[in-house]
Amino acid sequence: MRIEFISTGDEVLSGQIIDTNAAWISQYFFQQGREFTRRHTVADDLDSLIDIITETSHRADVVIMNGGLGPTSDDLSAEAAAKAMGVPLARSQAWYDHLVAKYAKSNRVLSMSNEKQAWLPQGADVVDNPVGTACGFSFKFNRARFYFTPGVPSEFKHMVTEQILPDIQQRFTPVAVPTLIKMKTFGISESVLNERLAELSLPQSITLGFRVDFPTVEIKLLSTVKADLDNARELIYAELDECILFEGDGSFAQYLQQLMLEKGNTLSLAESCTGGLIASELIAVAGSSGYLDSSHVTYSNESKCRLVNVKEATLIKHGAVSMEVAAEMAQGAMVNAGVDFGISVSGIAGPGGGSEEKPVGTVAFALASKTHTYSQLLFIPRWSRQGIRTVALYVALDMLRRELLGLDLSAAFGSIERRQSENRVNG
User: Fold this and answer.
1) What is the mean pLDDT of each run of 10 residues along the chain (427 residues)?
2) pTM score, two decimals?
3) With respect to CATH, is domain 252-425 assigned 3.90.950.20?
4) How many Å apart are CA 366 and CA 340, to the nearest integer?
5) For the domain bounded by 179-247, which CATH number is listed?
6) Domain formed by 3-171, architecture
7) Bridge-based pairing state of the strands 89-91 and 62-66
8) Quick check: 399 and 409 in contact, CB under 8 A?
9) Is the peptide bond before 215 cis (omega within 30 degrees of 0)?
């Protein structure tokens, strides 16, 4: 079955508006077992719209056209559809009466501009829009069944989920709805993931995909056979083990919050080069106050001493970017707040400030608990200042994940080089 999607509008074509409708419907249809074969973006130009309607009518089984149904002069979709089919525009009395009643409820009179939204290609079926004033419409033209929809996202989504997709499912051969499993990984590149998973004997029904969301890579498993999905999932966990952060559509912060709340643990942060980035990531999730007690941005050496108890002698001997200072930062954050864990980050994010001994990308991390403190010095290569800070954010949170799950904190992170590490018992 061939399904195509047409987005209309000069602002969409020029990039002034991001086409979120196209992304949403592609994902939604994919989850329902109906994939698009092509997507198009066309300007508010009558000839261009007529051309794309005529072209797709000979090739596709279903065409969904989005936008151009409003009251203004550049809303041309209905006119273009009528001209492509060689029929006149005709007023839908049912939709006209609906608009008159809708406006009367708010003590307004239907204008000539808004009346335009009741004029549809002759013979087209109305697709109801209970949210807005622009109705959709549907018709058969050559090979294709067309569905025209307004561009307002809330109206578009309601129309697609409540009317258009159910109509497609009724008109065309039913398909099995696949199940999608998403696994978020960290510390392993997309190319290495592909090579390692290519060696696995995954069931034939499995569709395997990848999506990079720096600095993580998402693995996607799709199948209509549950047993095959379970088998593939087990094989991938056996192969990748600790590189998998979590499963699902949520964020890493959501996953960690769930773990922390389940275990009743609390946390305090001391951030230098990340400058509050870790705290910002965690508090983006509602309810984070249930475990996150406090966060200190200890950017200067003086603030490291004053806020989280770093000894001046430690700074002088080892420097701010060192495991020793990171360990004292994490311990100080934990002890001062009276929490279960302290996490610290101190590094050189660049573009300047590096040295031969500690080049840009050198970052020290520590996680302190009541029983031990683990610290490590890593070199994060090649990336920009923001890239180094983002990777540091994930390394720090991955240390917390590993601590909560009882995993080895000395993780291998692909191209990230470990310079030193230490795990010492707290006395």
Assistant:
1) 97 94 95 93 97 98 96 94 97 94 90 91 95 94 98 96 96 91 94 93 94 94 94 96 92 98 98 97 98 97 97 97 98 98 97 93 97 96 90 96 92 82 88
2) 0.81
3) yes
4) 14
5) 3.30.70.2860
6) 3-Layer(aba) Sandwich (3.40)
7) unpaired
8) yes
9) yes
